[in-house]
Each structure stands twice: as C-alpha cells, then as structure tokens.
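Encode chain A's predicted structure.
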Amino acid sequence: MPDLDDAYANGAYIAGAEDYVARWPLEAAAFRDGLGARTTLGQSYGPSERMALDLFHPEEAAKGTLIFVHGGYWLKFDRSYWSAFAAGAVAQGWVVAMPSYDLCPAVRIAGITQQIAQAVMHVAEQTKGPLSLAGHSAGGHLVARMLAPGMLPQTVLDRVTHVMPISPVSDLEPLLRTSMNADFKMDTAMARAESPVRQPAPEVPVTVWVGADERPVFLDQARRLAEAWACDHVVTDGEHHFNVIDALSDPASDMIRRLTTAP
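Encoded structure for chain A:
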C-alpha cells in the first residue's frame, strides 16, 4: 500500500508556511514580555525536563483555566512557540496553561497521552473553578484522549466545561502508512488504542474545529470525530492548518467564547 506522507503534509500546501513557524516563537516571546509578572514559566508537572508548563494570568481573579496543548505530530515544538495564543482567554479573565511534553521517538504516543493527563491533573490541583481544554493537530488528539473513560479522575472531569480538538488527528491507523511511524513505532493495536474515534462519546461538551482549506485528510479526521461523538463541528472558511488557531488570540472570537463560557 502507498504511504500517506503527502496526504498528511501541511506545510507543503500552505503559502508562506515557513513564515508561520518563524513568527510563532517571536510573537510568543513578545507576549510573555508584555504580560510581565502575570506569567509563571517552567512549572514542573513530572519527572522529565520537558514535563513543564507555563501559566498566563489575567489581571483580576481568574474565572477559570484553559489548558492548551500544542501540535507538531508528537515530534516537534514545545510550549515556547504558542504563548501568544493565550491572549484571547487571558483577556476574558481566564488563566491559560500551556504544557510541553516529551516527544517521539523518545516516548510513545501513549506515553505522551499519559503526560498530558498528568499536566491536566497538576493544573486542576492548583486552580479552582471551571477547566477547558483545547489542542491543535496532535494536541487535538491529546485533549480528545483526556475524555477516554478513566483517563482523568472524575473530580477533575466534573470541572471540565468544554473540550475543543482543533484540526485533530482522531484516527491514528492511517499514520501506520507514513514515514513518521518510524518514530512513532506503532502497530495496529497501539494505533487503535490511541484513536479518539474509538472512544465512547463523552458527556462533556465538545466542539471539533477545523479550517475549510485544510488538507482533505484533516477535514475527514475532524468530521469522523464529530460524527462518532455526535458533537458540534465547526468548519471555518478561508482557514488552513496553520492559521486556524489564530482565533485563540482574539477575545471576541467564537472559539474563545466557547472555551470561556462556563455554566
């Protein structure tokens, strides 16, 4: 069978893709500098160096906490690229937590899932009030996995008011036919176990979000998760895999409204 490397290649089909990757860490650093004392950087949530998170605080007492999990095919990036995407929720009075995690091939995807569960529990222990989870691409997979039965303690899950997988990878089986699997080291059983589409539909409100101009496989991955879970499914015109998360920076966006509206 042919591999699917081209189908899952995003940057090759986005004009100026390299500019996004170059700009993200610069904008992130500027945001951190601007927030000043309202940042808490490098807080450990586990034993490895990359098991650490940054917290961005609003000016007043927090209304809730948004946890954002970054993407990069479980192979690249860390929290330092994404700080500026906390702007929307912080402006709405929410704390934003952004974890890094260990990457493949040093760990398996299932190990990353467990690390994110540890990060969520760590944040829950430190905070009060509602929690919401958002993740992009591989991060979308990871926040969806938090809704698997038994993944989070019920006391934590009871506080979760919204989960938003953005352009998620929801079925990992196709990745077995990509060159990336040399680093993932997955077999069919492992891919199925880590696929949110195979999880029972959660009771927590979920919005699956994807840009209309994304690669067909990502449109399909988003649609299949929304259908499997019978949850909200938003497809935004004119957006691709790299700019679909821009709405996180806008306190007036529908994306932020959903993530920061607690019952």
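The two ends are 48 Å apart (CA to CA).
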